[in-house]
Specification:
Layout: H1 3-21, H2 29-37, H3 59-65, H4 67-73, H5 78-94, H6 117-136, H7 146-165, H8 169-172, H9 188-202, H10 204-219
Helix pairs in contact: 1-2, 1-5, 1-6, 2-5, 2-7, 6-9, 7-9
């Protein structure tokens, strides 16, 4: 998946987990979305010898890493753990293959293209469900406080980075990430739309502020 899909499904599954555990009010949706994107930081660590979809895409790695949080925060940590694990067991199972139990040499995945219709559709479904949850239930993302504005900006930074890379897909999908390069014609219009919709949802508080300012200027 693209980062937007990872972020959207992280939000959805973390929200569902939190509601099932009765701790919805304590969930930070921005943190959940960021954790859903974190495994792909290994792309930036290639020069250090860390291969994409290896250590940061291992369920064993994250289970060990979360042990202190399980002990300290108990069930409150479970939605965030879910946010990370869905990256591996949902998004990266669909696209290519992943060493889900690294360091064990076991790979799992359907090996579909990142820009395949199946993957793009799944990401759109995630965005639609995410939008419905935000508009119906989420008071945090709709909050207009300064802290929420800052969190929304931090969350969109990796998404904006993806858009910068997509100005040249040959740079975006590098040879050490994918076995083949993608054609710019491969559903690129839908990929751009996905990112635009995600940014709109996350920047909702800021967009509401802009709307208010424009309204005041018109009245003045």
């Amino acid at each position: 998946m693209f980062l937007v899909g990872h972020g959207a499904w992280a939000y959805i599954l973390a929200t569902i987990t939190a509601r099932l555990l009765g701790i919805r009010s304590s969930l930070n949706p921005y943190l959940a979305m960021l954790l859903g994107m974190v495994p792909d930081t290994d792309i930036l660590l290639h020069e250090l010898g860390i291969r994409h979809r290896s250590i940061t895409h291992s369920i064993l790695f994250w289970a060990i890493l979360f042990i202190p949080f399980f002990i300290i925060y108990r069930r409150r940590s479970l939605p965030y753990f879910t946010a990370v694990i869905q990256h591996i067991m949902l998004g990266d199972i669909i696209v290519a293959s992943t060493r889900v139990l690294w360091p064990l040499d076991y790979e799992l995945g359907f090996r579909l293209s990142l820009t395949s219709s199946t993957n793009i559709t799944l990401e759109f479904i995630g965005l639609i469900i995410m939008a419905l949850l935000i508009l119906r239930y989420d008071k945090v993302i709709k909050d207009k406080s300064l802290a929420i504005r800052l969190l929304s900006i931090i969350t969109v930074i990796p998404i904006l980075g993806s858009l910068v890379y997509m100005s040249d897909l040959g740079m975006f999908i590098t040879e050490h990430v994918m076995a083949k390069r993608l054609s710019i014609s491969d559903n690129i219009q839908y990929v751009i739309l996905l990112h635009s919709l995600f940014l709109t949802l996350i920047l909702l508080p800021l967009l509401q502020d802009v709307k208010s300012v424009i309204a005041r200027l018109r009245r003045g």
